[in-house]
Design goal:
- The protein is mostly helical and about 180 residues long.
- Helices cover about 80% and strands about 0% of the residues.
- The chain has one domain: Serine Threonine Protein Phosphatase 5, Tetratricopeptide repeat, CATH 1.25.40.
- The radius of gyration is 18 Å and the shape is globular.
Length: about 180
Amino acid sequence: MAEYLLLKCLGCEFYSPFTYSSLGFLYRDMGKTKNAIALFKRALEQKASHTALVAFELAKLIGREGMISESIEYFTISLKLTEKDIIESTGLEMSLAIRKRSEILMHRSCAYEALGLKEIQARDIIEIARSDETFRIRYIEEGKRLLKEGFPLKAEKIRKFITKMDKLIAINQPF
């Protein structure tokens, strides 16, 4: 029903960024990745009010499709928005905006790692540790939750990321 209504909006030449991104989210959830990517790109072209979220979702989808360099570009677009912009575009309070920024940095750092760009990855990880003091605790708890719910691979991915973060923090501590 939602797909029908959103397509009907587009059929009536109602080309709003909201229509494109809503249909993109729907297609993402339906597993129609290529359609979702195209629609998210259309929404971004129109400078939607929720650009940070759309760019973030687009970056994740593109990364899953193996286009790592392009996914980094969209993670960076999402990050370039200030925390104030993120708050305005998603209605988040400042602490949630910082959490979202950290999540974007984490995903982008993983994309850098996939390309073998370890120094750039380290900068993103250090930035997370510097700007979000609750990140480590939140993600340790998230890893425990995932493990308990039967997602050991996702939990292990988080554990490895936290371990990497701990090592980088130890190396970069001022004496």
